[in-house]
Amino acid sequence: MFAEAKAFSGFSVDDIDAARTFYHDTLGLRVEDNPMGFLDIHLATGATILVYAKPDHVPATFTILNFPVADVDKAVDELNAKGVVTKIYEGDFTDDRGIARPEKREWGPVICWFKDPAGNVLSVLED
Question: Domain tally for the chain?
Fold first, then answer.
């Protein structure tokens, strides 16, 4: 029954206009207003994510969207140049720009987390 369903993911934000600006202007994604007043974010994979405003929005405390990139350092430089803060976690597993590298922890790729204007956590990680 579900194997054939064209499933999609979604998440909430507290300000749909701020989300539109961030995902389109800052991250460079194709963002469209849909007929319900929500946003459709189109990813390079062909997937579409539904973003909806929720008055009592609580930011996700986990990573809701990951962007594989060839060079995390370059992606972080570009994000920082656009005003995006990438140092969101404290501790010795990330450097001063928020990049976590395998030699600093026992798991995972080179990765850096950042937040959207609603406080949801996103990441760039080396592909």
Answer: 1
